[in-house]
Amino acid sequence: MDDNIKRAAEDIVKAGRKKVAALTGAGMSVESNIPPFRGKGGLWEKFNPEEYAHIDTFRQDPAKSWSMLKDLLDVILKAQPNPGHYGLAELEKMGYLSCIITQNVDGLHQRAGNREVVEFHGNNQWVICLDCRKRYEIATVLPLKEIPPLCKECGGNKLKPDAIFFGEMIPPEAISRSEQEANNCAVMLSIGTSAVVYPAANMPEIAKWNGAKIIEINPERTPFTSKISDYIIEETAGKAMPRIVEEVKKLTKNI
Ligand code: NAD
Ligand code: ZN
Q1: Domains in the chain with CATH codes
Q2: How far, in Å, are 81, 100, 108 from residue 85 at the CA level?
Q3: What is the pLDDT of residue 181?
Q4: Which atom of ligand 1 approaches the CA of 34 most closely?
Q5: Which residues does ligand 1 sit against, CB inside 6 Å?
Q6: Are the CB atoms for 214 and 186 separated by under 8 Å?
Q7: In a 10 Å sphere around its CB, with 0-12 CB exposed, 13-18 middle and 19+ buried, how is residue 155 labelled?
Q8: What would the pLDDT profile of 81-94 be if each residue is shown by its tens digit?
Q9: Using 50, 70 and 90 to split pLDDT, how confident is the model at 39?
Q10: What's this model's pTM, rounded to 2 decimal places?
C-alpha cells in the first residue's frame, strides 16, 4: 500500500501541470457521513434510490420523492468536506489537477476549495419548477413547510432539485467537458466509485485508451481494478489523499 502511495505521487509529478484528472463517486463522501448507494446502513436501506429518485416517480408523485429528498438534504447540508476532498483541493492549487469529474451531488469538492469541478449528476444547491421553469436556491425552500414544497411563482408542486434523477439525461456540456479531460490527462484518479454507473464510468476507459495511467483509490476492488487500473490503493479516500499530497510535496521540494 505504502509503495502504491509513493508510486501515485511519482506518477502525478511525472504527469506535470494540469495533466491529472479525477473521477469521484459516492465513496469520496463516505468519511463526510454521506452513505453510498451500495454500502450498508444509512438512508438507502430505507429508500431505493432507483425508485424514489426516478424522474417518473417524481412526475407522478413528487411527495414520494420529497420524502426521500428531505432526509437526503438533511444529511448533505450537515456534511463537511473530509481530508480526501482537501487533498484534491491541494492538488489543484499545486497545479497538477486540471479537473474533478464528480458523480456526487453534495457540493463538497467546491466547499473544500476546488474550482474546476464537473458535476456529472448535477447538484442539490438549486431547485427548478418543472411547470414554470423558475429556479430557486435550495435555501429558499428550507426548512420545508410542506411536502412537496410549492412553487412561489406558479403554485405548482413540482420543484425538482437540479440533481439528475434516474431516467434523466446527463447534461451534454458535462459529458463533453469530461471527455475532453479524459482525452487530455496523463493520469486519471478514480476515487470512491464502484465503476458501474455509465456514462461516468466511461471516462477512465477513454483516458486509458489515450494512454493515461489509471490509479484507483478504493478500499474494495471494482470492475476497473482488473480491466483498466494500473494499480489500486486499497484505502479510504480520506486516508490515502493526504498521504499522496505529502509525498508529492516531498518530491517537488527536491526538484
Ligand atoms: P456507489 O455507491 O456505487 O459506490 C461507492 C464506492 O465507494 C464503492 O466502490 C465503495 O467500495 C467505495 N468506498 C466506500 N467507502 C469509501 C471511502 N471511504 N473511500 C473511498 N472509497 C470508498 O457510488 P458511485 O459509484 O458514485 O455511484 C452511485 C451514484 O450515486 C452516483 O451516480 C452518485 O451520483 C450517487 N450518490 C451520490 C452521493 C453523494 O453525492 N455524496 C451519495 C450517494 C449516491
Ligand atoms: Zn412554478
Answers
A1: 1-34+82-121+170-255 (3.40.50.1220), 36-78+123-163 (3.30.1600.10)
A2: 6, 10, 7
A3: 98
A4: 41
A5: 25-27, 29-31, 34, 36-39, 103-106, 121, 192-194, 197, 217-220, 222, 236-238
A6: no
A7: exposed
A8: 999 999 999 999 99
A9: low
A10: 0.94
